[in-house]
Amino acid sequence: xxxxxxxxxxxxxxxxxxxxxxxxxxxxxxxxxxxxxxxxxxxxxxxxxxxxxxxxxxxxxxxxxxxxxxxxxxxxxxxxxxxxxxxxxxxxxxxxxxxxxxxxxxxxxxxxxxxxxxxxxxxxxxxxxxxxxxxxxxxxxxxxxxxxxxxxxxxxxxxxxxxxxxxxxxxxxxxxxxxxxxxxxxxxxxxxxxxxxxxxxxxxxxxxxxxxxxxxxxxxxxxxxxxxxxxxxxxxxxxxxxxxxxxxxxxxxxxxxxxxxxxxxxxxxxxxxxxxxxxxxxxxxxxxxxxxxxxxxxxxxxxxxxxxxxxxxxxxxxxxxxxxxxxxxxxxxxxxxxxxxxxxxxxxxxxxxxxxxxxxxxxxxxxxxxxxxxxxxxxxxxxxxxxxxxxxxxxxxxxxxxxxxxxxxxxxxxxxxxxx
Length: 420
Description:
Layout: E1 2-7, E2 28-29, H1 36-39, E3 69-84, E4 89-105, E5 110-131, E6 140-160, E7 165-186, E8 194-217, E9 223-231, E10 234-248, E11 257-274, E12 277-286, E13 290-299, E14 305-306, E15 309-310, E16 316-325, H2 335-338, E17 340-354, E18 357-371, E19 378-389, E20 397-412
Antiparallel strand pairs: 1-5, 2-5, 3-4, 3-20, 4-5, 5-6, 6-7, 7-8, 8-9, 8-10, 9-12, 10-11, 12-13, 13-16, 14-15, 16-17, 17-18, 18-19, 19-20
């Protein structure tokens, strides 16, 4: 039996992803290290703390916001992906808004933040043709489609417990829906009805993330920051609509027509279990000059369940290394000496195990930040090249190139200007 897998293309204007691996679980997951500047350093975030940056990767980092300033950040991402099997290749492109973040002080010891970012995304369109000629039967076509995802609205608070210790908590409301459909069609056979199964799931609920950071002051004003994050397991409410039916048409430009309903389950209420997460990070830096950092993070996706039914997802692992360098941030004559240059790398084991192989992901990133003259605004650019999956064991390999562009604005708040 020969199985051919063909992927549908997407135009640049579309904002949904195109990844066959997003068919499983909650789709393609997104972490909280969303800033273009953090992505330029491999996504390190747990030990990162900067008064000019909103870093939802560790809510404790909000504690360093300046007591008289407000920070606003937003960014877009453009993905260029090549999907490959042993026999086929397909290109996919898209661009979309990736985050909106806002941070400001409440008092000297209490700082707060708001944000909007993705939690997960679903986007795939797969045709699987099964050659049945050796059985003297018409070909069978299995069409798989999915789109949607879950968004995150974030409210974070950080509290300075001392000169060097910070504690933070993010309360996130996640919401969204996913649509999945599967068709089994019998090509060149007008006497056999096809089957169509459609499922729509709407999810909404609160999850919480906690973070700690501790600064160790060293010689030459060097600073070593240790960070930790934790999120306990949460049940998120969901509503599922399911319908399966017999159909005719739906291929060769033949109009699809529903003949009969096999099963219909509307508005079934249940829960999705979002598993616990734990991570540690460290950053060594010379403020205004350079820094080096590393993250390691785990999440127990083997504990995930959907409407009380366990899934076959695996525990995940993320490792990131990165750093940045600014030649001379006080230089007023040379822009390139005030530019911040970044580089990093990351390795992730996803929660998918297909054909006995856990799907992993690797990326190498570079970035720069351009300061705007006479302001504290920066333009941030991050580039990443990497791959997801493998060609082994009849699997799919996704080679990607991501472009992250962000704007970070820091302005004085409640600051009384003086004029001569």
